[in-house]
Specification:
The protein has 12 helices and 11 strands. With about 325 residues, it is an alpha+beta fold. The protein folds into 4 domains: about 70 residues, Winged helix-like DNA-binding domain superfamily/Winged helix DNA-binding domain (Arc Repressor Mutant, subunit A, Orthogonal Bundle); about 55 residues, no CATH class; about 90 residues, SH3 type barrels (Roll), CATH 2.30.30.100; about 80 residues, no CATH class. The strands form 3 sheets. Strands 6-5-4-3-7 form a 5-stranded antiparallel sheet. It holds the Pfam family WYL. This is Helix-turn-helix transcriptional regulator. InterPro entries: CBASS_pafABC_assoc_protein, WYL_dom.
């Protein structure tokens, strides 16, 4: 082995996170301790002259040499990301393991071992949603490339009722995640903002037969769209008010850009207490959320939403009547 090959191998060992000593290197490569020390010194000098984002560290106590990436995440950051990722239940176990390992590789081995232990119990009991049965990472990568290249697609899609698989044409314009699933916002001449669940796409093929072009005026603000979406995006966008007897912050956190409508204590008391909150969202998701709140909520406006809530509650009650 030449001197150059040996130094390259030492550098690779350092990149792998190994903590090296001159004595261990001397024994591994059958050179003198002085030669190993010189190799480590040469690597230090080369790294100082390079623009590589690594710090070359010498621990005087353990007498070891190691490389530390300057752009590493902190252990707390990785722990937070992994706990949130596990909580979403979005990915199957193989992809969850892949993402976890890639994140853990960005922190020091000792810290990575500690973070892995802190996640061990929740990972052992991890149960993904049905979408996790499919490989999502390749689809995320592919759709991100199609969005960037503004590629029109022909595809078949399985709708939620599972009764039909429909062939369609669309231009993917955005990706987002909400409540267990990844979604793709597609543009077509018939609908400038239609949402599809990423895992329900069947055959997907770029097409040259149709070339869709998104008009600037029809472009969707993804952040604004997500703030108005709860569970479902269907129906018209609506501004609604409701009296809420639960902890106000619970509703405010669940409904972005919602706010408490000021009223006097006398008016509030006359109406049974609680607070009045105003929010904005799509009808289907709004109706689901309202129904999920039970007796802690009373819709005040608009009248159309009040009527729909009454109708759904009447239908629900009828199912329990003998």
């Amino acid at each position: 082995m030449t001197n150059t090959e040996r130094i390259i191998n030492v550098f690779i060992d350092l990149l792998h996170g190994d903590e090296l000593t001159p004595e261990a290197l001397a024994a591994k490569y059958q050179v003198t301790t002085r030669t190993a020390q010189r190799d480590l010194g040469s690597l230090r000098d080369l790294l100082q002259k390079s623009e590589l984002k690594y710090v070359y560290q010498h621990d005087m106590k353990t007498k070891t040499y190691a490389l530390r990436a300057m752009n590493q995440l902190t252990p707390a950051t990785v722990l937070a990301i992994l706990k949130q990722l596990i909580g979403t239940r979005a990915f199957g176990k193989p992809e969850l393991d892949q993402i976890s390992n890639e994140l853990l590789d960005l922190i020091e081995p000792t810290a990575a071992s500690q973070v892995r232990k802190l996640c061990a119990t929740t990972r052992a009991q991890y149960v993904p949603v049905s979408a996790g049965e499919k490989a999502l990472l390749p689809r995320l990568q592919q759709f991100s490339e199609w969005i960037a290249s503004q590629t029109t697609l022909t595809f078949t899609y399985e709708h939620s009722d599972r009764r039909h698989v429909q062939s369609e044409v669309g231009l993917p314009i955005s990706l987002y995640f909400s409540d267990f699933y990844f979604y793709v916002i597609m543009y077509s001449n018939q609908d400038p903002r239609r949402v599809y669940r990423l895992d329900r796409f069947k055959a997907i093929q770029p097409t040259q037969d149709v070339k869709l072009k998104l008009k600037l005026a029809e472009k969707t603000d993804e952040g604004d769209f997500m703030n108005k979406t709860y569970l479902l995006h269907g129906g018209n966008e609506t501004t609604y008010r409701f009296r809420y007897w639960g902890l106000p912050q619970t509703a405010l956190d669940r409904l972005p850009h919602s706010h408490v409508v000021p009223e006097t204590k006398k008016v509030a008391a006359a109406n049974g207490g609680g607070v009045v909150i105003e929010a904005n969202g799509f009808e289907q998701g709004t109706l689901l959320w309202v129904l999920s709140q039970g007796t802690t909520i009373k819709v005040l406006a608009p009248a159309s939403l009040v009527a729909k809530v009454k109708q759904e509650l009447t239908r629900t009650l009828a199912q329990y009547q003998e």
